[in-house]
Design a protein that fits this description.
By secondary structure, this protein is mainly alpha-helical. It has a domain at 23-159: Helix Hairpins, CATH 1.10.287.1700. 77% of the residues lie in helices and 6% in strands. The chain contains five helices and four strands; from the N terminus they run H-H-H-H-E-E-H-E-E. A hairpin with a 6-residue loop joins strand 3 and strand 4 (228-230). The two termini are 13 Å apart. Bound molecules: zinc ion (ZN). Zinc ion binds next to loops.
Length: 232
């Protein structure tokens, strides 16, 4: 099998592989991924804080409703003509009033505590909102920089792809597919020479029987790294 053309193909393809690798590992791209994770986290946190805030608001509302009832009852007691009550009824009315007043103090303390909690949640919410906004703005910057990198690389990439398409015509389809499979798995270089009876990729020694197969057929698949070993 004619391997020369595929070796030539790989030479051009290695330039493409490098360019693609640079883009994949671009610091701008990685920053984008980090920032988008921060934005997502902030959003989830905001949602959690919102639900906490609405829970606190409900609790405060309930407290106010109970306090209003207490106040009404106190008003009722005070509205009674106390002179007409028996000593026993007067005692019970006054002790109920006292109890209701104490309840109001407790409710007031609870309401103050809830209001403090609400403020803390609100402060945290605002902080999270700022973090979300900052992440979004920075993401935009890094995304623009990454898009520029892609744009800058694209003429060279297209040129290399055109060059590959020309060489490709002279390569056996099955062989090319075997090459493409490995490249997709990020095994690169795919084609390696035999060096002192060892695989030129992973340096594993090739058994004597395989070396003679390589002599006969011109190529051999390394059992260790799957690279295609060729005879120079
Ligand atoms: Zn190998």
């Amino acid at each position: 099998m004619e391997i020369k053309n595929l070796v030539e193909y790989q030479k051009v393809d290695s330039k493409l592989f490098q360019l693609e690798k640079q883009l994949t590992q671009s610091a701008n791209k990685q920053k984008c991924a980090q920032l988008s994770a921060i934005a997502k986290e902030s959003q989830q946190k905001s949602e959690k804080l919102e639900s906490q805030a609405s829970q606190i608001a409900k609790e405060i509302q309930n407290l106010f409703a109970v306090a209003d009832q207490n106040k009404l009852k106190i008003k009722e007691i005070l509205g009674k003509d106390l002179e007409k009550l028996s000593a026993e009824e007067l005692d019970s009315a006054l002790s109920l009033k006292e109890k209701l007043m104490q309840n109001l103090v407790v409710l007031d303390k609870k309401a103050t505590k809830l209001a403090e909690m609400a403020n803390a949640v609100l402060a945290e919410f605002n902080k999270t909102k700022v973090a979300y906004k900052n992440a979004g703005e920075k993401f935009k910057q890094f995304k623009e920089a990454y898009d520029k990198e892609v744009e800058d690389a694209s003429p060279k990439i297209n040129e290399l792809k055109k060059e590959l398409a020309v060489i490709e015509k002279n390569i056996d389809k099955n062989l090319l597919e075997e090459y493409a499979k490995r490249r997709r798995d990020r095994i690169f270089p795919v084609l390696v020479p035999l060096n002192n009876r060892c695989c030129g990729g992973c340096h594993m020694e090739v058994p004597a029987s395989s070396v003679s197969k390589l002599e006969r057929e011109g190529i051999l698949v390394c059992e260790n790294c799957r690279r295609i070993i060729f005879k120079i």
